[in-house]
Design a protein that fits this description.
The complex is a heterodimer of chains A (about 260) and B (about 375). Chain A has helices at about 45-50, 75-80, 100-110, 115-130, 145-155, 175-195, 205-210, 230-235, 235-245, 245-259, and strands at about 5-15, 20-30, 35-40, 60-65, 70, 85-90, 165-170, 195-200, 215-220, 220-225. Chain A is an alpha/beta fold. In chain A, β9 (about 215-220) and β10 (about 220-225) form a beta hairpin. Chain B contains 15 helices and 4 strands. The chains are: A alpha/beta (about 260), B alpha/beta (about 375).
Chain lengths: ~260, ~375
């Protein structure tokens, strides 16, 4: 089955401070899937995400985002493309001087000419979709728990109805219950809003529960992209090392039991 | 897929086909078409608000022709549906594709409306009341901070070996030595201005020589202490607030507490001791440069030579003129430190609050310094100094 590729990374090369992080890296993300990017620390997961998001420029190679090459876009085209992406940064990156509601309303106010009341209603809808109680809308980020900050960040990322949602370490810093609830949220959003989701994660439970495919970064490239169950069977030593860890084993057994 | 280009903030709207709504009153059908998306609906939203749909009766909603529908469009569609139903009739959804119906269900109105309404702004008198209560609350907080700090600091002052002297010297250098150039320059300028402004009327009476008393009293008793205290409040008091406020946000203050180190001991007491030493010394420095500025003008413009000035000053003025100026300065130092630290510890939440707290702290410490100066004037007057 050939599906529409919404992100295509070809021959990517990244250098940071003289070190080569990625060399000839290729990755394809298809519409409607949840793809996780994993790999040991220092393999450039977050850097790859930032390059796809056009926040950093690769040394060589091309990234095609929603069918457009991002190499030579002018500023206006980049801005237009950004309105079609939603990003949840690792630490939420909510504006601390604004309430949750104001945070979510901000992109709507910037990019649409709807009436204030409809914008507010739409923002409340996104807050509700992200699984936050209505009472959280009037609160400032400093008054929220870690899990609620992540949900508020998702609500803001969803404000403009993006086609692509990027989440960086969605479950880091959450307790197991909160992390599992967040996995459910990701799955629910995908089915409700027709999203394509790319996530960088360390969480082994999330890999087994909430992903369609997993891209494994190592040796400066994507070693393999496959559903997690297939990936775990691969013979490559780096992948084996990653999946043979005790936590990974336990997560895997739990998934089998659940099935 | 259609490529979309844009050049300004309205690019989204240029790219979208505007959403359309056509009401067929005879067939009782509502036809929707176009892009019912964030970019496509603004014009329709404004039109819908003016539309009179109270005709009543049954309607049939047809959304087959909608090219794209997102949550914003679905929300507007939901509003339309509610308006049609408000007329009293039923709305037939047979011509709404399942995908559209799923989005409509998603945006089903719940208690969202109630929560979405912002708290009404306070009316005039209420705002005044809240403002007063907040102010009183702050005074209370400040007094209790002062009390806690005094209870904490007094035992320490009796056992000086427990004070962090290394930090005291570092703070003294930071607040005192590095403030020398700016304090000196401003005091010098103030001396020049006083001599220049005061000398002209004195000259009209031929009382040029009295310029010595004028400059000496003004500089030594009032201007040097005040200018020094105001500069230090702006320079050092603000940095106290910002430093402690930032530590408060990053939970460093709590970390100190859990390590068994009192924040007062580490953060406030050394600052207080340092400033109590540095501010009088800075004032003496400002005295010297202020007098020098006055002397230069007296010499150059009013024919009072420097040696006359220096001879006349001790002859005509009691030494208390100097001491009164220097002795009230430690009180200013205490005000600046305690107000600066108080506002630092009050910071909660975000980085923006640090900025706000710093502003409040500087304004309040300058205000209190001037009030204290006025009180001192009255007290010294009572004891004939």
């Amino acid at each position: 089955m050939s599906r529409e590729a919404v992100i295509e990374v070809r021959g990517l090369r990244t250098e940071l401070g003289g070190h080569v992080i990625h060399n000839d890296l290729n990755l394809t993300v298809e519409r409607g899937e949840i793809l996780a990017i994993v790999g040991g620390s220092g393999t450039g997961k977050t850097t790859l995400l930032r390059e796809i998001l056009m926040l950093e420029r690769p040394a060589a190679g091309d990234i095609r985002l929603l069918h457009r090459s991002t190499r030579d876009l002018d500023a206006a085209a980049v801005r237009e493309l950004w309105t079609r992406l939603g990003v949840m940064f690792q630490h939420g990156a909510l504006f601390t001087s604004l309430t949750v509601l104001e945070n979510v309303m901000m992109p709507l106010k910037e990019h649409s000419r709807l009436s204030a009341s409809l914008i507010r209603e739409l923002a409340m809808l996104k807050i509700e979709l992200a699984g936050l109680p209505a009472s959280a809308a009037g609160k400032y980020p400093s008054e929220l728990s870690g899990g609620m900050i992540k949900r508020a960040a998702v609500a803001r990322a969803l404000a403009l109805d993006p086609e692509l949602l990027f989440v960086d370490e969605p479950t880091s810093g959450l307790d197991p219950v909160g992390a599992a609830a967040f996995d459910d949220l990701i799955l629910r959003l995908r089915s409700l809003l027709d999203l394509t989701i790319v996530m960088v994660t360390h969480d082994v439970d999330s890999l087994w529960r909430a992903t369609d495919r997993v891209a494994f970064l190592g040796e400066q490239r994507v070693l393999a992209t496959a559903p997690v169950a297939e990936l775990a069977e691969m013979a490559h030593p780096a992948i084996q090392g990653y999946f043979a860890g005790p936590r990974m084993q336990r997560a895997r057994e739990q998934t089998w039991k659940a099935e | 897929m259609r490529e979309r280009f844009g050049i300004n903030n309205q690019h989204l709207e240029q790219a979208a086909v505007p959403a359309e709504l056509r009401l067929d009153a005879t067939a009782r059908q509502a036809f929707c078409s176009g892009d019912w998306t964030l970019a496509g609906i603004p014009r329709l939203e404004r039109r819908l608000a003016r539309l009179d749909l109270r005709g009543g009766g049954h309607w049939r909603l047809n959304t087959d022709a909608i090219a794209r529908l997102d949550t914003a469009g679905a929300l507007l569609l939901r509003h339309l549906l509610d308006r049609l139903r408000a007329g009293g009739g039923e709305v037939d959804l047979a011509a709404v594709p399942p995908a559209h119906r799923a989005l409509l269900d998603l945006v089903q109105r719940g208690e969202r409306d109630a929560a979405a309404r912002p708290a009404p702004p306070l009316a005039g008198i209420e705002r005044l009341g809240k403002y007063c209560l907040d102010g009183l609350g702050q005074v209370y907080e400040f007094l209790s901070f002062l009390g806690r700090f005094a209870l904490f600091a007094l035992p320490y002052l009796l056992r000086p070996h427990r004070i962090r002297w290394r930090q005291v010297t570092a703070e003294t250098s930071r607040a005192g030595v590095s403030a020398l150039p700016i304090v000196g320059m401003l005091a010098f300028l103030v001396g020049i201005v006083i001599a220049y402004q005061g000398g002209t009327p004195l000259q009209q009476y031929g009382a040029n020589i009295v310029i010595v008393e004028l400059v000496s009293i003004t500089v030594l008793r009032e201007m040097a202490p005040l200018v020094t205290a105001i500069i230090v409040a702006g320079r050092t008091g603000s940095s106290y607030t910002a430093e402690i406020g930032t530590m408060q946000i990053t939970e460093e203050v709590d970390a100190l507490r859990t390590m068994g180190i009192q924040p007062f001991e580490m953060l406030v007491l050394p600052k207080l001791l340092a400033l109590t030493v540095a501010l009088p010394l800075l004032t003496v420095f400002a005295d010297v440069l202020g007098l020098l500025g006055g002397m230069l003008v007296a010499d150059g413009l009013f024919g009072v030579s420097m040696s006359t000035f220096i001879d006349r000053m001790p002859a005509r003025l009691p030494t208390s003129t100097f001491w009164v100026g220097v002795l009230k300065v430690p009180v200013f130092a205490a005000i600046i430190t305690v107000v600066g630290c108080f506002h630092g510890f009050r910071v909660q939440g975000s980085a923006e609050r640090v900025g706000r707290a710093t502003t409040t702290s500087v304004v309040q410490s300058i205000f209190l310094v001037i009030v204290a100066d006025a009180v001192f004037s009255i007290l010294f007057n009572l004891v004939d100094l």
